[in-house]
Specification:
single chain; 443 residues; alpha/beta; TIM Barrel; 2 domains; eight-stranded parallel β-barrel; 14 strands; binds D-xylulose; binds cobalt (II) ion
């Protein structure tokens, strides 16, 4: 247990408020780029980025891996009564969020408080923590970016929840989602997330994929109707991932999710929560997934992290790649940013990062890298030929026959006639290296 200051226990001892000190500072516990009040492209960095802390990694994740026991031993994880223990964890969470100046947080139901197998008792526990969180939010001004239900850890979900072949299991998932939606609504959550880690299959040999996907869609409709009926005005978000823990996940990537939402008439209520490391596991870049969602009007929110170029799994490291994030922020800014979403650090410190300051360094690095990338991207958009080079490439569609084609006014015969009249087209450079150099110049 930590020190007691002002009547409250301090869990992150010796670490004060993290502040913006600018690029000349040597203080590793200060922001060098994230000045929350700095205006970029008409909004403050705080309004653009809407940073959130992830409850599960920062206050629950113990550093355990398949080869070893926990290395992060939390002082808030001591009491035997589950509700009292969960309140200590929430004290620690809000202390960290406040010291880090994080305006939002995100949780799974089972992050807030441990669940057993009794639905009514779980609802009672969650309600106690929701009441506690309401007070904490009011005191600190910190808001809930999104809530979600953990429908993948309990053994009953080993074959999925909404896509489980057993209706009985599906109903348990629904009970959990109902309580998580109630909690999100009561806490003023701005979004609600579905990440279907086990909504997929391990083998097609025993799977009726069509039926499972139809059940998944029906489940989303049922949850959405309940939430809307009970006053939820926020956005529902699907978080794509191609696999892990299932061999194949139905929400494979943004393209797949957009097709699914459109096919099942869910596209008015749902948008996408894009996670960087899920994008790369799907064989895409983060930029690709942002652009795909933005083009469909479904850029909802971001789970910020990064993978490891040498590993093929979800390492969930904190973001630190300035070049990649600058490219991503170009898309983010051109798309008009995130409306109800934010940038949630779905990232974990390494198993061997065992100082309590490590969680602070990790978030400071992530927030500074995003802020710097956004500032750089804005400068590229304002002060370079970046946009012009791209629009010039399509100039032949802006007038005459090209424009008529875009408007659907030309037949295949018309196109043939044009090709014969104009002869062989000129060779035109895509200028990729020129643009890459330009981006580096602005960084
Ligand atoms: C798992 C993952 C989840 C979701 C929420 O890979 O990203 O933490 O963000 O369920
Ligand atoms: Co995530």
């Amino acid at each position: 247990m930590g020190n007691v200051i002002n009547g409250e226990t301090e869990f992150f001892k010796g670490i004060g408020q993290v502040k913006f000190e600018g690029t000349s500072t040597d203080n590793p516990l200060a922001f060098r780029w994230y000045d929350e009040n700095r205006i970029v492209a008409g909004k403050t960095l705080k309004e653009h980025l809407r940073f959130a802390g992830a409850y599960w990694h920062s206050f629950v994740g113990s550093g355990a891996d398949p080869f070893g026991a926990p290395t992060h031993i939390f002082p808030w994880d001591k009491k035997s009564d589950p509700v009292e223990k969960a309140k200590d964890k929430m004290d620690a969470a809000f202390e960290f969020l406040s010291k880090m100046n994080l305006p939002f947080y995100c949780f799974h139901d089972t992050d807030l408080v441990d669940y057993g197998s009794d639905i009514i008792e779980n609802e009672r526990r969650l309600a106690a923590l929701v009441e506690y969180a309401r007070q904490k939010q009011a005191q600190s001004g910190i808001k809930l970016l999104w809530g979600t239900a953990n429908l993948f850890s309990n053994p009953r979900y080993m074959n999925g929840a909404a896509s489980n072949p057993d209706f009985h299991v599906l109903a348990h998932g629904a009970a959990q989602v109902k309580a998580a939606l109630d909690a999100t609504i009561q806490l003023g959550g701005e979004n609600y997330v579905f990440w279907g880690g086990r909504e997929g299959y391990m083998s097609l040999l025993n799977t009726n994929m069509k039926r499972e996907q139809e059940h998944l869609a029906r489940f989303f409709h049922t949850a959405k109707d309940y939430a809307r009926k009970n006053g939820f005005k926020g956005t529902f978000l699907i978080e794509p991932k191609p696999s892990e823990p299932s061999k194949h996940q139905y929400d494979f990537d943004c393209g797949t999710v957009i097709g699914f939402l459109t096919r099942f008439n869910l596209d008015k209520d749902f948008k996408i929560n894009i996670e960087v490391n899920h994008a790369t596991l799907a064989g895409h870049t983060f930029q690709h997934e942002l652009q795909t969602a933005a083009d469909a009007g479904m850029l909802g929110s971001v789970d910020a992290n990064r993978g490891d170029y040498q590993n093929g799994w979800d390492t969930d490291q904190f973001p630190n790649n300035l070049n990649e994030l600058t490219e991503a922020m170009l898309i983010f800014l051109e798309a008009g940013g995130l409306q109800t979403g934010g940038v949630n650090f779905d990232a974990k410190i390494r198993r061997n990062s065992t100082d309590s300051a490590d969680l602070f360094y990790a978030h400071i690095g992530g927030m500074d890298t995003f802020a710097r990338a956004l500032i750089t991207a804005d400068s590229i958009l304002q002060n370079s030929d970046y946009k012009k080079i791209r629009s010039d490439r399509y100039a032949s569609f802006d007038s005459d026959k090209g424009k008529e084609f875009e408007e659907g006014k030309l037949s295949l015969e018309d196109l043939r006639t044009y090709a014969i009249e104009k002869g062989e087209p000129a060779v035109i450079s895509g200028k990729q290296e020129f643009i890459e150099n330009m981006i580096n110049r602005f960084i």
